[in-house]
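Consider the tokenized backbone below.
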């Protein structure tokens, strides 16, 4: 499979899994807290449903050679979803996200390779793999936000983790708060499992990932790949940290949690 193929396949499995899970939620469940601090479960589903509607309009504009629908369109979609009841959000999410997933699946090989999509907030149009990966990240992390409301040991889907791992370095600088370092410079060797990878996390402004290994790292961090993705996304609080996470030297999980407060 091409890069876009594997990402779109993960979008499908992620949608099917979350839609099935959400179908069993009661009204009380929908009002309960999620992994997103300011949202209840229904609001997470609303965010995903409205995002899917906006994403679908964005893809259709790219396919027809039209400009991005724009912020006014986005605001109208958000306002409509925000005005829904909790049950209406939960009921509307599956169809909205299914439509976006199916649209990605409908792209033939040439479209997956050549289409360029104006997302409205990037400096230039992106390819299908990039746009789909961004949606997969959003879907995967917010699916975790829903599930962790019922299971503190929830983890990210394995196929999504594999598809997202290589692209995680692109969000490091944006997701981090280097002022927390107060001028300190540290190089941590990070090793992930399931899937396996190794890289150096350079804790200096700006925070970055280096594929090369330093001669003498200041510390080491070993953890499941899904936990690494959650750490960068601000979703590795102590109660959500698997026992397999290991640190040595200057690797300090409390510091890293402050560096990556979440988004």
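A designed sequence for it:
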């Amino acid at each position: 499979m091409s890069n876009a193929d594997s990402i779109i396949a993960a979008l499908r499995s992620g949608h099917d899994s979350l839609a099935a899970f959400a179908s069993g939620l009661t009204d009380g469940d929908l009002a309960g807290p999620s992994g997103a601090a300011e949202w209840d479960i229904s609001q997470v589903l609303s965010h995903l449903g409205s995002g899917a509607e906006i994403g679908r309009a964005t893809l259709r504009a790219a396919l027809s050679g039209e400009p991005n629908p724009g912020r006014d369109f986005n605001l109208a979609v958000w306002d409509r979803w925000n005005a829904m009841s909790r049950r209406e959000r939960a009921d509307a999410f599956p169809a909205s996200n299914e439509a976006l997933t199916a649209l990605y699946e409908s792209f033939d090989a040439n479209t997956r390779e050549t289409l360029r999509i104006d997302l409205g907030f990037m400096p230039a149009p992106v390819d299908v793999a990039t746009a789909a990966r961004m949606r997969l990240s959003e879907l995967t992390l917010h699916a975790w936000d829903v599930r962790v409301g019922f299971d503190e040991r929830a983890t990210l889907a394995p196929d999504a983790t594999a598809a997202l791992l290589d692209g995680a370095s692109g969000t490091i600088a944006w997701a981090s708060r280097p002022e927390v370092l107060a001028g300190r410079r540290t190089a941590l060797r990070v090793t992930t499992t399931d899937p396996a990878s190794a890289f150096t996390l350079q804790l200096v402004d700006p925070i970055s990932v280096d594929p090369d290994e330093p001669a003498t790292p200041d510390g080491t961090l070993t953890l499941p790949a899904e936990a690494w993705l959650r750490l960068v996304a601000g979703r590795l609080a102590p109660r959500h940290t698997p026992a397999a996470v290991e640190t040595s030297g200057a690797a300090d999980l409390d510091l890293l949690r402050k560096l990556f407060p979440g988004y």
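The domain at 3-163 is CATH 1.20.120.450 (Four Helix Bundle (Hemerythrin (Met), subunit A)).
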